[in-house]
Amino acid sequence: MRRSSDLSPEIAEEAAWWRDAVFYQVYVRSFADSNGDGVGDLDGIRSRLGYLELLGVDALWLTPFYRSPMADHGYDVADPRDVDPLFGDLAAFDRLVADAHEHNIRVTVDLVPNHSSDLHEWFQEALHAGPGSMERARYIFRDGRGFDGSQPPNNWVSVFGGPAWTRVPDGQWYLHLFAPEQPDLNWEHPEVRADLEQTLRFWLDRGVDGFRIDVAHGMAKPEGLPDMHIQAQAPGVLSDDAHDPRFDNDGVHEIHRMIRKVMDGYPGTMAVGEIWVKDDERFAAYVRPDELHLGFNFRLVEADFDADAVRSAIEHSLAAVALTGTPATWTLSNHDVVRHVTRYGGGTAGEQRARAMTLVELALPGVIYLYNGEELGLPNVELPDWALQDPTWERSGHTERGRDGCRVPIPWEGTTPPFGFSTAVNTWLPQPNEWDHLTAEAQLEDPGSMLSLYREALEHRKSHASFAGTELEWYGAPAGCFAFRRKGGGLICALNTSGASVPLPPGQVLLSSGPMDGDQLPPDTAVWLV
Ligand code: GLC
Questions:
Q1: Full-prediction pTM beyond 0.70?
Q2: Is 404 in the pocket of ligand 1 (CB under 6 A)?
Q3: Which of 65, 176, 277, 336, when mutated, tests ligand 1's pocket best, judged by the most ligand atoms within 8 Å of its CB?
């Protein structure tokens, strides 16, 4: 089996390689399809490693490819230690890891510890074994409220809409913070812990370089499962309300310490947690020295294209990790949120703003998480009702369209769908015809394309001395603008979100997100100066 220590010497030398790495999130279903079934797979990813190397990323995060009935597209795991036939097999996984390492790209994989699939053998056993059984103790089964138990045990709602409890034929209820096909595991149960440890070792022994931990602020549940404040629930995929009893319970930290102990036995590996927790101090608790190596921070995702909002997101993200010694992480898009070209207004303005925000993000110290397709400037897609597959659509009674619009398969080449993604005409989500000018092929040789901007920016980030150091200082700037300087290396990044051009700070232009207006920085534009 390959370990990190088998990597080529250039990239193996630094144990904490992840501290300034650029990760690239591969939404496996949508990246590249090697066998013509319209769904992306592991050999498909392998066939595009040359592209990823050219783009300049250091590591991949693969979304779940484990055995799953796909009620939540793989986040409902029936066997965490096997590959779903839809995506390949263990041999295909080993080929991918070996080839990625040949390309000096590390591989990290998703872990889903909060819940399993309802078709996991444990849950099936629990259903058959009945109330009070050992089998039920691995999940969160309770009797209902009301004289006949016909009311759910508490008022919790599922993140995907509707109640977080489902009743089984013998009258008991089980908890699912997500879809009913994703029953929550009972983290008080020693077998649940032992099983995760086995899963960690299984993939570490196969050579993975780390994990992304799904719902890392979930797992632990509060004593007595008290009711939640329904009105306090934030919209979106996950709530980040500090008083939400469903998430961020103190017991979760012991689980992260267990995970860290295992990982410390595999030097050079790392874990990043999905942590939708807004309070800086509570967030910081997850990245203490004996817990996660990194925590996702979603403040940039949540900020509008507005200099003050972006600056505040940056300052909070840095403050949250300042006392912990861990680097900040930066994300503009992922498989759960509207793609940022669209969030910033769509069309030409959305693209220009996305270009500007890419330079802001890539100027920051710490860890970058790119989402597949953002380097092509893909917008969210307005899919027709018939195409929608995200459980949110059904669960919300067709009021929330869900996350499919950011998960449409990648356009690689050619002028009509499936744009080289697959040989099948019907891809799992349909691609818009207008994506002909957004293919990787169309953008590769065009110096003005989004792809070229990413390649150039990533190249500078990797090699230019001005990116040294971890601290920022902010300059005074006109309203609607900001400028910061990397204290160590001296790189200056200026952003203009106002409606008028503004004077540039002093320095030589290293890269700009769009044309300059003489010696002025135009609206919707960012620039790097040295
Ligand atoms: C995380 C994933 C999301 C998934 C959910 C349930 O939020 O990012 O895609 O639906 O967890 O596993």
A1: yes
A2: no
A3: 336
